[in-house]
Design a protein that fits this description.
Helix content is 75%, strand content 1%. By secondary structure, the protein is mainly alpha-helical. A two-stranded antiparallel ribbon has the order 1-2. A hairpin with a 2-residue loop joins β1 and β2. α2 crosses α5 and α8 packs antiparallel against α9. It is globular. The structure holds 3-methylbut-3-enyl trihydrogen diphosphate (IPE) (2 copies) and magnesium ion (2 copies).
Length: 340
């Protein structure tokens, strides 16, 4: 579904949007970020570097730290503070993944078995706590209370989002409004923080801070909307996560909300049985995808992601056209068309 979607038809003819430009521009800085990550995951308690190293070595896109790096450079920043902060952002992200995979009972992440499968839930939760705490050490080392406020606020909001999501699970009465609040908290907030701190280290005025925060918020919303489409439509090996996890656990995402709304009584009986009662049998997932296709729910969710993507692009309009702006623009195109 998503591979053929692009921000505009012209680009669609050209090539699949990628993170190549962003990766090339931030390569030197990102190498430093990766060094900090490796240094800071160390501990004499060997289970910590073992478990964290398993997830970190499996890769991941490093999208959020690259956004911090590029946002800072877009703002003309010439120093080194942004690399430690980008590592802190990735640590927060990694910690949430460890916790999220326990809560979601997921068994595949970044193409490898999840830490909860290999080491169990207890170890995953505790090492997630360690990484969260390390992220805060990195922020304190940076010394900016403003940055510390933004990233600590993002951390508490992510946790709120995950709890909010937990209480909407298995509830087919969940509204679009609830869903948007959940994804804004659990995902968009960290993207917004990641980009806003780029403007802060560069000591830029409020207008630019707000523009970059808005950019991050909107690309983050688009990113999670597509993530929720991919959970029904992706090629599992490409995605590196198990397709169908959201359905299996009865997570109420926008494709579900739209299909439920569009469905007749028979459809609603199906959704209630599978998502509320979690009574699922062979063939139900395929049927769910079919019903979503019939309702146009996946396509409508992609369209919604494209709207947020457009808002992200609009937020960049106050910045001069340079290579970092182009890389950020391309990362928006990637977020709405990605297959992994
Ligand atoms: C996964 O984020 C969690 C979501 C917010 C959907 P990413 O897709 O950025 O995960 P990695 O870091 O590349 O593995
Ligand atoms: C990710 O939500 C949000 C956080 C990690 C906080 P998902 O549950 O959709 O992410 P994946 O699909 O497991 O990566
Ligand atoms: Mg999950
Ligand atoms: Mg997901």
């Amino acid at each position: 579904v998503t591979n053929v979607v692009a921000l505009n038809d012209q680009r669609e003819l050209q090539q699949t949007p990628s993170l190549d430009r962003l990766m090339a521009l931030t390569a030197t800085d990102l190498a430093r970020v990766n060094e900090v990550i490796l240094e800071q995951m160390q501990s004499p308690v060997l289970l910590i570097p073992q478990l964290a190293g398993h997830l970190i070595a499996a890769g991941g896109k490093r999208l959020r730290p690259m956004l911090t790096l590029s946002a800072a450079r877009l703002c003309g920043y010439q120093g080194e503070r942004h690399t430690g902060l980008a590592a802190s952002v990735e640590f927060i992200h990694t910690a949430t993944l460890l916790h999220d995979d326990v809560v979601d009972e997921s068994d595949l992440r970044r193409g490898a078995a999840t830490a909860n499968v290999v080491w169990g839930n207890q170890s995953s939760v505790l090492v997630g706590d360690f990484l969260f705490a390390r992220a805060f050490e990195l922020m304190v080392a940076d010394g900016s209370l403003e940055v510390l406020y933004i990233l600590s606020r993002a951390s508490s909001v992510i946790a709120e989002g995950e709890v909010h999501q937990l209480i909407t699970a298995n509830d087919t009465d969940t509204t679009e409004q609830d869903y948007l609040e959940v994804i804004e908290a659990k995902t968009a907030k960290l993207f917004a923080a990641a980009t806003e701190i780029g403007a802060i280290v560069a000591d830029r005025p409020a207008e630019e801070r707000q523009a970059l925060a808005s950019f991050g918020h909107n690309i983050g919303m688009a990113f999670q909307l597509i993530d929720d489409v991919l959970d029904y439509s992706a090629h599992q090996a490409t995605l590196g996560k198990a397709v169908g996890d959201d359905f299996r656990e009865g997570k109420i995402t926008l494709p579900i909300i739209l299909a439920f709304r569009h469905g007749d009584e028979e459809a609603r009986v199906f959704w209630r049985r599978t998502l509320e009662d979690l009574e699922q049998k062979k063939g139900d997932f395929k049927r769910a995808v079919q019903m979503m296709e019939n309702a146009g729910a996946l396509k409508a969710t992609v369209d919604r992601a494209r709207e947020y993507g457009q808002r992200a692009l609009d937020a960049l309009s106050i910045f001069p056209d340079d290579e970092h702006k182009q890389a950020l623009q391309e990362s928006v195109a990637f977020a709405v068309s990605r297959s992994y």
